[in-house]
Design a protein that fits this description.
- It contains 14 helices and 21 strands.
- α11 runs parallel beside α12 and α12 runs antiparallel to α13.
- It is of the alpha/beta class and about 475 residues long.
- It has an 8-stranded mixed sheet, sandwiched between helices. Strands 11-21-20-12-19-18 form a 6-stranded parallel sheet, with helices on both faces.
- The longest helix is centred in the C-terminal third of the chain and has 22 residues.
């Protein structure tokens, strides 16, 4: 109530399965009793069906849905329900932030750390920042919920204020009832390779999948992949060729047999047609090009579990392209007696299936090697979120993470369920590099037909920015 009166922000920092959604429902119920409306944002369209189901069971037809998979007519109908005051609770993806709700009393952003809340095309905005402004302007509360809050939100809570309002962190460190956080096992794939195991699934993961089939339980397999850029990794020592100038992983171009830095555009030849590529660190010819697809995982899994009566459900951009496919595939997984859900990061958060006892991560290193200063944070977030899909019911859960970088703080923190193991090293690196949350970054683009003219304009922009920055010091 106090937060609502001042437009303040509350960060609900709760472990996966701790009951954050129930907290949201209770808060909305209080807001509705006071005659005001509420807005709830979720990061993935795949979460909308399950989330809407829980909200409609509590608020009935008072709920409107807004996301991009609706047809233009459906979106207008839902938008109009809010405009006419017939629906007072709106649930949707990023763009639902602009729903025409009257007497807004509460804004909730679930999984607030997610990059999908950032709009990269015009008009560019970050839903978290716009929501904070809306809450301040309209005098309503903003609730940010996550098991892995962004470093920016944690830093604002540490400072206790940002943008003229109070930021408070509310912790939910345990799961309710008998549910417990799952046991996490990290499998070093370099050791598996040294033992002669060259399979997509390590022996511990393969054995665990067989156990799920025998016990007639359910499992989730995550292919930890962002974007489409393949990179090379030595399967013997785990080294990834990096750009010596940018310290980012190089992208392998198979047709030209080159490694290319997509930051500075430098390239290096590696191998020739008919000659094996060799690791630049140890000289091993066992260089793997990573970027395997979920379809390949699905096929391999079907061979592994052939004749076991296990339903395999694949969720990725290809299988969920059609209208209603997200919900249909989740319903198929839910209805099956024994099943494995294979997918990309869309299956990593928000899904609540108590029957899931095993979560497997095919390769945890993919995001660690992306050319992004947030790579380690996003890896930790994704692994912690997907690990939370296991053990949400009465049966204990197990998580198996396959990696070539078992010593990385992000992976060690997930294994120990201890965020501080990751935060201490990550914040130190961010501070040294003056990256967020210790600064804010902007990307200034200029383009034109004449290169020298473009360069002249950019030099002028850079000179002006340097002068202003120096003037503030």
């Amino acid at each position: 109530a106090c937060a609502a009166a001042r437009g303040d922000v509350v960060v609900v920092d709760g472990v996966t399965g701790s009951g954050k959604t129930e907290v949201y429902l209770e808060a909305i119920e209080r807001v509705r009793k006071s005659g005001k409306s509420a807005l709830v944002l979720v990061p993935e369209i795949s979460l909308t069906a399950q989330t809407v189901g829980r909200f409609r069971s509590r608020f009935g037809d008072d709920v409107a849905i807004l996301h991009s998979r609706l047809s233009a007519g459906e979106r207008f109908d839902q938008w109009d329900l809010a405009r006419r005051g017939e629906a007072h609770v709106v649930v949707g993806a990023r763009s639902a932030l602009f729903a025409p709700l009257r007497d807004l009393g509460l804004v909730i952003i679930d999984e607030e750390h997610e990059a999908s809340y950032k709009q990269d095309s015009a008009p560019r905005y970050h839903a978290r920042e716009v929501a904070a402004r809306i809450a301040r302007e309209r005098g309503c509360a903003l609730v940010l919920g996550s098991a892995t809050p962004s470093l920016e939100s944690l830093e604002r809570c540490r400072a206790k204020s940002w943008g003229g309002v109070s930021w408070t962190r509310a912790c939910m460190p345990e799961r309710p009832g008998s549910a417990r956080l799952p046991k996490v096992r990290v499998v070093d794939m370099t050791e598996q390779f040294a033992l002669g195991r060259k399979h997509m699934f390590s022996k511990p993961l393969a054995d665990a999948l067989q156990g799920v089939a025998e016990r007639r339980e359910k499992a989730v397999l995550l292919l930890n992949r962002r974007g489409f850029a393949n990179f090379l990794m030595c399967r013997e020592c785990g080294a990834v060729p990096e750009c010596p100038h940018c310290s980012t992983s190089l992208t392998y171009h198979e047709r030209t047999h080159t490694l290319v830095c997509h930051s500075c555009d430098r390239s290096w030849a590696i191998g020739t047609p008919g000659a094996p590529m060799r690791c630049p660190v140890c000289g091993s010819p066992y260089l793997g090009a990573y970027g395997i697809g979920t379809q390949q995982v699905e096929t391999t899994l079907a061979d592994e579990l052939a004749g076991k009566g296990v339903t395999i459900v694949r969720m990725d951009a290809d299988t969920t392209r059609g209208k209603g496919e997200h919900q249909r595939r989740l319903e198929e997984f839910d209805a099956a007696e024994c099943a494995v859900l294979v997918g990309t990061q869309m299956i990593a958060k928000g899904l609540d299936f108590p029957q899931v006892t095993l979560v497997g991560v095919i390769n945890a290193d993919t995001t660690l090697k992306m050319p992004d200063f947030r790579a380690a944070e996003r890896t930790y977030d994704l692994l912690e979120q997907v690990a939370g899909r296991a053990g949400r019911g009465e049966r204990p859960g197990e998580v198996i993470i396959q990696t070539y970088w078992a010593s990385h703080p992000a992976i060690q923190a997930v294994a120990a369920h201890d965020r501080d193991l990751f935060m201490s090293s990550e914040l130190e690196e961010r501070r040294d590099g003056n990256y967020p949350p210790y600064s804010r970054l902007a990307n200034v683009l200029c383009w034109g037909r004449n290169e020298s003219e473009v360069r002249r304009v950019l030099d002028g922009v850079a000179s002006t920015l340097r002068a202003r920055i120096e003037g503030r010091r």
